[in-house]
Design a protein that fits this description.
This protein has 9 helices and 13 strands. With 293 residues, it is an alpha/beta fold. It has a 6-stranded mixed β-sheet with strand order 8-6-10-13-12-11. A 5-stranded parallel β-sheet has the order 2-1-3-4-5, sandwiched between helices. A two-stranded antiparallel ribbon has the order 7-9. Bound molecules: NADP nicotinamide-adenine-dinucleotide phosphate. NADP nicotinamide-adenine-dinucleotide phosphate binds next to α1, α5 and α9.
Length: 293
């Protein structure tokens, strides 16, 4: 019998991209799609392209009829026993005994795709980033708002993404900290950040500063990035415009701090709907199809 992969939340930004992404997998399987009021039948894999409350409600109900659930929301990312996976970094976290797998926050993805290649060479003492996050990262309602004349987000940058917490941080900022620790398997990693929404339609960017445990070897760092799948160091400036529609996480403007040789600064840009969401989901589905279903 043909294997089945269901996309739940087909009408959203990520759902639509997921449909196109799954077509890139060169294995025999059938894709089924589900909207808001559709009944979900037995499936080999269900990909939840839905917001937290929907994933929270749906995931437990699918347990008895779906072998693996891949959730794109943040609902289960920090749940112990639920792997939070970027296949280039921690594919090993997926096993036959992990029926629920979470795909990370898009901004966190850009950060850890730049840190993971350096992990064999350096210890990270401190990481700081400021994000420049695209409108499409906020889902189709925000994109529709952006396209409405007079949108607050047009020609603006808004330093508040997600919910504002009692401690003054936002939920998005804490994802950058806690999800990075889980994916990189560095439980005491220090990450300081501001997350900012900017009036750019697609592709997130981050300005990143990392304090290493020893003087940075810039050539070694560039080589490490270029040897890592789906990461590219660019000698010229790359912007979200060029990153849109691309699979790679682009890094540019690497430089050593003028006073502290252990500190590096660089800029990252990548398609939040692809590597930050649907492409990562597709890579997880491919792993499951190849090894576990
Ligand atoms: N956008 C990104 O860059 C990005 C990156 C990483 C992760 N994510 C995460 O991915 C998830 C989807 O994001 P998005 O940007 O695609 O949001 P979105 O554009 O708002 O799409 C959400 C979709 O969920 C559908 N939905 C709601 N209730 C449903 C139900 N009971 N059954 C099936 N579908 C239902 C909605 O249907 P209607 O069309 O009927 O309203 C909508 O089409 C979110 O958790 C988000 O945090 C997004």
């Amino acid at each position: 019998m043909k294997k089945t992969v269901g996309i739940i939340g087909i009408n959203g930004m990520v759902g639509q991209k997921m449909k196109a992404e799954l077509q890139k997998i060169k294995l025999p399987f059938e894709v089924k799609t589900f909207g808001r009021n559709d009944e979900v039948p037995a499936l080999d894999i269900a990909v939840l392209c839905t917001d937290n409350p929907v994933s929270r409600k749906l995931a437990p109900t699918l347990k008895d009829r779906v072998k693996f659930v891949v959730d794109m929301s943040s609902e289960f990312r920090m749940t112990p026993g639920v792997p939070l996976v970027i296949p280039e970094i921690n594919a090993h976290a997926i096993t036959k005994d992990t029926p629920l797998i979470a795909s990370p926050n898009c901004t966190t993805t850009g950060l850890v795709m730049s840190l993971a290649p350096l992990k064999p060479f350096y210890r990270f003492e401190e990481v700081f980033f400021c994000s420049y996050q695209a409108i499409s990262g906020g889902g189709k309602k925000l994109l529709d708002d952006f396209h409405t004349p007079g949108s607050y987000y047009a020609e603006n940058c808004v330093p508040l993404i997600g919910s504002l917490l009692e401690n003054g941080h936002t939920s998005e900022e804490l994802k950058g900290l806690y999800e990075s620790r889980k994916i990189l398997e560095i439980p005491d990693l220090k990450v300081y950040c501001h997350t900012v929404r900017v009036g750019v339609e697609n592709s997130h960017s981050l300005g990143i500063t990392v304090k290493l445990d020893k003087p940075a070897d810039l050539e070694q760092i560039k080589r490490a990035w270029n040897h890592f799948p789906h990461v590219k160091y660019m000698p010229s400036v790359v912007t979200p415009k060029e990153a849109s529609g691309q699979e790679d996480t682009f890094i540019c403007r690497l430089r050593q701090d003028v006073e502290d040789k252990n500190i590096i600064h660089y800029f990252v840009t990548f398609d939040n709907l692809l590597k930050g969401a649907a492409m990562n989901g597709r890579q997880i589905v491919q792993l499951l199809l190849e090894h576990f279903v």
